[in-house]
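Methods — Computational structure assignment.
A single polypeptide chain was analysed. Its primary sequence is given first, followed by the predicted tertiary structure written as structure tokens.
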Amino acid sequence: MTTARLKADDRAEATSPPPAGKKRPLWLRVLTVLFFGAVIVLLVSQARRIDWSEVAQVIADYPVTTLLAAGGAAAASHLIYSTYDLLGRHWTGHAVPARRVMAITFVSYAFNLNLGSLVGGFAFRYRLYSRFGLDSPTIAKVLGLSLTTNWLGYLVLAGAVFAAEVVTPPDGWDIGRAALQGLGLALLAAAAAYLLLCAASRRREWTVRGHTITLPPGRLALLQMGVSVLNWMTIAGVLYFLFGMRIDYALVLGALLMAAVAGVVTHIPAGLGVLEAVFLTLLGSQVAQGPLLGALIAYRALYYLLPLAIAGVMFFLLESRAKAERLTGTGLAGPVAGR
């Protein structure tokens, strides 16, 4: 939640339309072309790394009811995540319409899942929000709140799961049971500290190297925690359905949360992705390797690839809308009335 203060006249200049008939600077037009080119290259590169025949076969082998349940949970999770930036909209008071905010968040999240946080979480948000008239400090504040929201829910759920020893690290991992339990307690303490600061701290801002770190209100922090916990639990629901509901939900949730931290605190064998390695290790005794890997392939198709295809189309539609509005001088974001 980082913001630098702008003067009022700077903000007005940042959100005002370009003079009629005046072309954008050449360097900005070149940068735009390069950005679009990079997006297309990333999409093509991602598509070429996927064995589409394997994905199609795995999907074809599933009952329709299972796919509908898992697909519904995946859609619900993306919808929940798309509300994260609405919290930032409410907090900052910017006037980008709610539906557009959700569309931008969905596009950013889909690219984030497939291509990394620098591309999705940061580059796409900055690009799209700035195209709709938001200044950089406001974008940074929205982005900071969204990132905090996502990981606040993780702190609460992972802390509870690890502390309660719902899952235990297998032999050979670089973290033992006691260390994982201690990590769980530390995660819970970090979440509690954030909520307490937001609710009770008299000091609401800290300036670090010219940037202002601002605490949201306590009620907003509780809302952050609630929607994030719900989202992480819904993601686990996608996998739970794809496993045919044959594995205890708490174990599926624990494996998902473990996978999110495994790359940092454990040594994962080479040749497997972190997600696959963790699920094979933790759940391999309950599900045969073939069906387990098939479920993970289906999960990636439903939760990663299908949303990416939709997000690619939505990105270009948003860009077209932003260009049209800038040409007419309509739809530029400013403060919400009364803020």
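Note: Confidence is low (pLDDT under 50) at residues 1-21, 267-271.
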